[in-house]
Each structure stands twice: as structure tokens, then as C-alpha cells.
Amino acid sequence: MKKIEAIIRKSKFKEVKEALHQVEVNFFSYWDVTGVGNEKEGHVYRGISYSTSEIQRRFLSIVVNDAFVQPTIEAILKSAATDSVGDGKIFVLPVEEAYRIRTGEKGETSLN
Description:
Blueprint: E1 2-9, H1 13-22, E2 29-36, E3 42-45, E4 48-51, E5 54-64, H2 69-80, E6 88-94
Antiparallel strand pairs: 1-5, 1-6, 2-5, 3-4
């Protein structure tokens, strides 16, 4: 089992969610975060300068069986990309064990 953490543009969330559902990843957690990135230039909108180094992003946390790791990563990569600086990052971490609270099931079957 692996935990996949992805930080994506908020504007791409709907596309990423749909892409994850297409590869049968139907459960994940997400929340809004603010981060500091490599973008150093600001943008001007209606005469007001906005810093783009502190940008709102969406953080996704997904735990999947080993067979779903690569399809999950590919779905995020394809659906979240804009080919611009600031598209985000994906991290893959090992998961030692998982439990379903309702039944006490453990291991990969607890993720179904």
C-alpha cells in the first residue's frame, strides 16, 4: 500500500477528481492549502500587484493498493498539468498498515 500526496492548482481539481474516478480511485481526502513556491514574479490585475509566490493550492491525500499506484499518478499528471510553473508536486510514501474502523478489517482489503 502507498499513500499518494498531491499538491495541485485549485482550478484543476475538478479534472483531477474526474480522472481519479476513471481509474477507479473513488475515495480520497483533500483540503485547501497555501504554499510558497519558486515563482518569483508577480501579476498585475486591474492595477493591483499580486504575489504569485504564495498561491492557493489543493492538497490531496490518497491511499491505494500497490496495483493502483501508477494509474493514480498518471491520472494526476495528465489532468493537473498546464505546462506552467506551479502545476504542483506528487509524493509517494509507504503505508505499513490500514484498518477499516467499522469492521476491524486490516490490510489492502480495508481500502475497498
